[in-house]
Specification:
The chain is an alpha+beta fold. It has 3 domains: about 5-55 and about 80-95; about 95-220, Transferase(Phosphotransferase) domain 1 (Transferase(Phosphotransferase), domain 1); about 230-360, ANL, C-terminal domain (GMP Synthetase, Chain A, domain 3, 2-Layer Sandwich), CATH 3.30.300.30. About 40% of the residues lie in helices and about 20% in strands. The protein contains 12 helices and 13 strands. It has helices at about 5-15, 55-70, 100-105, 110-125, 160-180, 190-195, 200-205, 210-220, 230-245, 280-290, 315-320, 335-345; strands at about 15-25, 30-35, 40-45, 80-85, 90-95, 95-100, 125-130, 140, 145-150, 155, 250-260, 265-270, 295-300. The strands form 4 sheets. Strands 1-2-3-5-4 form a 5-stranded antiparallel sheet, with helices on both faces. Strands 6-8-9 form a 3-stranded antiparallel sheet. A 3-stranded mixed sheet has the order 11-12-13, with helices on both faces. α4 (about 110-125) runs antiparallel to α5 and α5 (about 160-180) packs across α6 (about 190-195). It is globular and about 65 Å long.
Length: about 375
């Protein structure tokens, strides 16, 4: 399936290809730059030309919902703005920030105040997002504010009827679930009541529709995890990690997923060790083991970045694997963190799909 001529012509003239963010049966999403009337800006492109024929009707429906919602959010400053739309492609603005599950804003009360304000603006515009249970649809901006993205399931209302009120309530309840995860001490008594009381529609969905949804998405569409790694990250990565750790020269490993233009989803293994020949050894061992397909990239590092509890900071490693290096900087706490990460960045392996976003990184 190809893009309509008008879509293809405009993108050829105005879109500068960048980093692939996601590719699934509903769309291809990539980050790049868009030449608008007021100059070149960072942007995100969603296109339908690579979706399979059997998912095209549903993909088109989701595309239309997002286009309508983005057009209505213009000027609200709650998320990306629609810069251009065609029949099978659209370009939205890029929000300078990282997803909630990567940023992990523990105790950040200002962020959650900002998130509630964003929901209020959406409600006033008659928009219900309908997919805010996913942490990756909440962004923590570089300015510390909350933004939402991915409006494929959004519903727009002209009147605030019973369905609107139910969906708006569920949007708020899902936000409060995230607040409970990252700032539980800040929940008010009223917010705790909302968390404790699902709407009737939500209860019915959990008892019926969600089971069907999971059967379809995890079975037919092969969606499994929130990071987009699917079955490879959920099923293959733990097996591969155990095989890698069997090598006596390996101290530890962390495996993350990244979007790949050839395979759809790739795996990137960061291996803590000292031997220069370790990468080749591991690749031979994984191939000989006849287990899951080896990671597309194996990078030996002097040490894995870790949080205070000692766990590898996979949120940073995932951004390295995805070549979104400019988004790492706000997550660095000091110059020591930057110096620690310098070697990892300079020796990274995924150079096929990259852009010059890293130009914004300050020199170490």
């Amino acid at each position: 399936m190809s893009l309509p001529k008008n879509d293809a012509a405009l993108l050829s003239a105005r879109w500068i290809e960048g980093v692939l963010l996601k590719r699934d049966v509903f769309s291809t999403v990539e980050r790049g730059r868009f030449r608008g009337d007021n100059g070149e800006v960072d942007a995100v492109l969603r296109r339908l030309d690579e979706v399979p024929w059997w998912s095209f009707l549903l993909a088109s429906h989701l595309f239309a919902r997002e286009k309508r919602a983005l057009a209505r959010t213009k000027g609200l400053n709650v998320g990306p703005e629609l810069l251009w739309s065609g029949r099978r492609a659209l370009v939205r603005g890029f929000v300078d920030g990282v997803t909630l599950h990567l940023a992990k804003p523990h105790g950040d009360l200002a962020y959650f105040r900002s998130a509630k304000a964003a929901l209020r603006r959406l409600r006033r515009a008659g928009i219900c997002h309908n997919d805010l249970a996913k942490e990756q649809n909440w962004l923590v901006g570089r300015n510390g504010r909350a933004y939402v993205t991915d409006f494929q399931l959004a519903a727009c209302f002209e009147r605030r009827g019973w369905l609107y009120r139910i969906l708006a309530y569920e949007d708020l309840r899902h936000l409060l679930k995230h607040k409970r995860s990252y700032a539980p001490e800040a929940l008010t008594p009223r917010e705790r009541k909302i968390l404790a009381k699902k709407s009737f529609a939500a209860s019915l969905w959990l008892a019926t529709g969600k089971k069907v949804y999971r059967a379809i998405t995890r079975g037919l569409f092969n969606f499994t995890d929130r990071e987009g790694g699917g079955r490879r990250l959920v099923n293959d990565a733990p097996v591969l990690a155990d095989l890698i750790r069997k090598n006596p020269a390996v101290r530890d490993t962390a495996i993350v997923a990244f979007a790949d233009r050839r395979s759809g989803v790739g795996l990137y293994a960061f291996v803590e060790g000292d031997q220069a020949t370790l990468e080749g050894q591991l690749r031979n061992e994984l191939t000989a083991a006849r287990g899951p397909k080896p990671p597309e990239h194996i990078q030996v590092v002097h040490a894995l970045p870790r949080d205070p509890s000692g766990k590898p900071r996979t949120e940073i490693l995932q951004l390295v694997a995805m070549n979104q290096l400019d988004l790492i900087e706000p997550m660095m706490k000091n110059d020591q963190d930057r110096a620690f990460l310098k070697d990892i960045l300079e020796q990274r392996k995924n150079l096929r799909d990259r852009f010059n976003f890293e130009a914004d990184l300050p020199a170490s």
